[in-house]
């Protein structure tokens, strides 16, 4: 279990949640794993749950402590809340800011700053770790260009201009993505992003990783009471989780791209894991998807120090921490939304 931002995260599977006085008690096979006072908690998030007692749910509902349940893989299942005043106020604030393009831009630019910053430090990491295998001078030049884009984004308050700057920064970064592939170069290469359909092995993996990441971020947003379908950078479109797409921007490179690169460079996947259809679309075979998903879940368990919170958490909790921070900003508990800045 992990307490973060007045939220209790229960990451061990098959744990039953019960109430003892003013405390939550964690039980597994009738063994008591932990006990924590409830009076200073705002929410409880449980992964791979066995269940929760009606007494605990009633206690939390009366005191406006939400309980969110997820599968062990991070899929959102349900959220137990009491009177809806807190949730309604948060979502009304989200909807109001989303309708205001200036306010939307002020939030959106921090998502973009996070994305460009993380791309920059991916590039810097490559120059440090593989100076003999890449063109260091080229990488450093792009890193400096990304620093310039960060400064421009920081001063920008126009959504259209922000999208333009994000696009230009993405072009610079994408030019180096192929050079980050250090193994199996004949079978894995990146020339440009192709989505529907993906036209090469790398794009097939990126599409799958982005889909998984978007689902994980959407689940995190739902868990804190935000509407994953109402965004600030990505505007409303039926069936599109716009806010999830907003928030995943800062994690797209540092989480998804690095994950795909590691599978290639560590030879976890190979050319035999893919098939090409008549229309040129490249798909991952079923066994490859299973390997991918297994590695994705293992990645979530890896520990990282959260740069803003200065707490050691698993990668799988990063999007939950960011969702909590965004909710706090929307409630005016923070002056600004702090993006996830990896280094």
TrEMBL record:
Its EC number is 3.1.-.-. Keywords: Antiviral defense, DNA-binding, Endonuclease, Hydrolase, Magnesium, Manganese, Metal-binding, Nuclease. One of its GO terms (molecular function) is DNA endonuclease activity. Homodimer, forms a heterotetramer with a Cas2 homodimer. One of its GO terms (biological process) is defense response to virus. Its cofactor is Mg(2+); Mn(2+). CRISPR (clustered regularly interspaced short palindromic repeat), is an adaptive immune system that provides protection against mobile genetic elements (viruses, transposable elements and conjugative plasmids). CRISPR clusters contain spacers, sequences complementary to antecedent mobile elements, and target invading nucleic acids. CRISPR clusters are transcribed and processed into CRISPR RNA (crRNA). Acts as a dsDNA endonuclease. Involved in the integration of spacer DNA into the CRISPR cassette. Belongs to the CRISPR-associated endonuclease Cas1 family. Mn(2+) binds at residues 166, 234, 249. HAMAP family: Cas1 (MF_01470). It comes from the Bacteria. It is an enzyme of class 3 (hydrolase). This is CRISPR-associated endonuclease Cas1. It comes from Paenibacillus lycopersici. InterPro entries: Cas1, CRISPR-assoc_Cas1, CRISPR-assoc_Cas1_C, CRISPR-assoc_Cas1_DVULG, CRISPR-assoc_Cas1_N.
